[in-house]
Amino acid sequence: MDALLIHPPASKPAEPPLGVAVLLAHLRGQGFEADALDANLGAYLYLLDPQRLAATAGEAPTTSLKRALRHAPGALELLRSRRALDSFGRYSTATRHLNEALSVWRGAGEERLTLGDYLHDGLSAFSPADLDKLSRGEASTLFSGYFREVLVPSVVECRPRIVGLSVNYRHQVLPAFELAGMLRRALPEATLVAGGGMFSSWKATLARLSLRFSAFDRVVFGPGEASFSALLRGAAPDGPFLEDGSEIAFAPDFGFARLGEYLSPRPVLPISSSRGCYWRRCLFCPESAAPTHPYRCAKADSFASQLASLARRYEVRHFHVTDNAVPLNVLRQLAAQASMLEELSWHGFVRFEEALLDEGLVDRLARAGCSMLQLGLESGSQRVLDRLGKGTRLEVASGILRNLERAGIEAYVYVMLGTPGETEEDAEATLRFLEEHAGGIGFLNLAIMNLPRDARLLEKPGEYGIREAALLAEEEPLGLYQSFEPEGDWGRTEARRFLNSRLLGSASIKQIVNRTPPFFTSNHAFFFPSPKGQPQAAGESP
């Protein structure tokens, strides 16, 4: 085999990974013998095996753990069944049983795995020394049994010339480095390649500190299509780092994915119509100053036919559009080709663009299968939005939420408190906005801001209310975030207190938050539409 692509744990096991699917399709299209493995799904199913759970739990599990272990097999079956859609209560109970069952896996007592993330209190994903320990086999993760018994033997059997690990989330970093070390020892002749969003986010730091990862022969920054093809042809330039954005593909190949085994009431396929962000002006976002991908958009007029083709090929109806923000030209084309998509369902992120005030456009999007739109509001204070470079007008956001509600499209709204320069009055404005629009908000994500290392706010910190900022830990030079001290008396601590007491103390806001599917959040939210009645015709009064 020429190449084997691996998606390592841990991320939500709700749908197959898009990154390896797109690269796989590209490599096969180039004539290479390639395949992919979703080691994340494999790891979760290995760890949820009833016999392994019972053996790891020991002879005296707690009452709650004993209950979870007893119900785990049925809970797993329910989450993979349409029966999960019959009752949000039963669905929520099943997810909590599985999450409690996963708590038996603690490694040496310092690890925690949930259906949504993975943490290791003894090792840091941002410490080169810790990553080196894992790759040399001097430390381990709770995934080591799965790697050793299942995954590595499967990879060895394939005998690939090149093995690529796609790492896009912090929760994947530690397991990926442990796996790379195991593969290095099992397949010393193979070339190990790392890629994905996490490695791309480290590009500047690796160059500045002259850091190299002994676990990998090559690291690919940005899109991997051209670089990986060059490696397979023997035409890649020398050096540990590769970057070539000349080729960007969008069509995926999910032939490797066991769709019926994902933890989802119905199969969902991820798909993207663009890479990068077309706005790139938000001062708090690293995509503005140091994007991991150059912005590219697929042909807008062919995206609907691609969805329809994938639906037929894999016998699925539900799609997760993973763009940072679906471009307006794509939305308009989806609406124009609604008849092609009437039996399908899709959801994804969009910006609060004025075009979404158009009732006709939104109605056609609903007919084209749009079940939910995710929107980053961030704040209900216009002053804060302007300082952050969001390009959002609150009166426009207000109108869009009403329009989506009228059309029967769920709005999953993201709010971020504790931004530099925010005041208590700004937070109160956010509270008022959410309460006033509670009827049009299906789901809410409430968060406290983490300041990205590459945010443009740091270019002129004093202008944005930042007195000082520093990496969270000096021994973690790969860290993605900075701590910061505000110039005023309102910071993250005060914002968190406000979130817990004022926002979650609001009955209407709490009701929205309680509708959010536990652990799977936006991945499953569209399965459970909020009780807002039937969509209204354009022009009809609410």
What's the quick description here?
Helix content is 40%, strand content 16%. The chain has 542 residues and is α/β, with parallel strands linked by helices.
Task: Give the structural class.
Answer: alpha/beta
Beta-strand residue percentage: 15-25%
Q: Percentage of helical residues?
A: 25-40%
Low-confidence stretches: 533-542
The total of helices stands at 21
CATH level 1 class label of the largest domain: Alpha Beta
The coarse silhouette is globular
Number of strands: 19
The CATH architecture of the largest domain can be given as: Alpha-Beta Horseshoe
Number of domains: 3
Could you name the CATH homologous superfamily of the largest domain? tm_1862 like domain
Taking the sheet with the most strands, its summary is:
6 strands, parallel
CATH topology call of the largest domain = pyruvate-formate lyase- activating enzyme
Task: Outline the structure in words.
It is a single chain. The protein has 542 residues and is α/β, with parallel strands linked by helices. It has 3 domains: 3-40 and 122-243, 3-Layer(aba) Sandwich (Rossmann fold), CATH 3.40.50; 46-120, no CATH class; 266-525, pyruvate-formate lyase- activating enzyme (Alpha-Beta Horseshoe), CATH 3.80.30.20. Helix content is 40%, strand content 16%. It is built from 21 helices and 19 strands. It has helices spanning 18-29, 39-47, 50-57, 63-79, 88-102, 128-136, 144-158, 170-186, 197-201, 203-209, 225-233, 286-289, 303-314, 328-336, 359-367, 382-388, 394-407, 424-436, 492-503, 507-514, 522-525; strands spanning 3-7, 34-38, 111-113, 118-120, 162-166, 191-195, 218-221, 241-243, 268-271, 274-275, 296-297, 318-321, 345-350, 370-378, 410-417, 443-448, 451-452, 466-471, 481-486. The strands form 5 sheets. It has a 6-stranded parallel β-sheet, with helices on both faces. A 6-stranded parallel β-sheet has the order 9-12-13-14-15-16. Helix 3 packs antiparallel against helix 4 (63-79) and helix 4 packs across helix 5. The chain is globular. The chain starts with a strand and ends in a 17-residue tail after the last helix.
